[in-house]
Predict the structure.
Amino acid sequence: QVQLVESGGGLVQAGGSLRLSCAASGRTFSSYVMGWFRQAPGKEREFVAAISRSGSSTRYADSVKGRFTISGGNANNMVLLEMNSLKPEDTAVYYCAGDMIRRLVPSTSTSAYDYWGQGTQVTVSS
């Protein structure tokens, strides 16, 4: 079973930056897409960003476009999410996820992803 482990979360002031990492365990990792989702208290889990295995395709939620950058996505490599100009609204648990289906474009739906990490807390203070 593939295990995904997120790290890099923490407390940061508004306007600050954080870099999240997602590491996959084992030698076998065949996901075509790696994505980041987040879930704030009382809210549904929402799409943040995704990248294809080749790195040629990326997608971002409108709420983070221009502020967050996803990189990596190769099998057995870490996928990173660099978050800049953070806002209190970005406060959430951030989850790494993998999609093993070769889609035309990375999916923004939670249902498309086959495995998930445990999440890492990001808190942005005012």
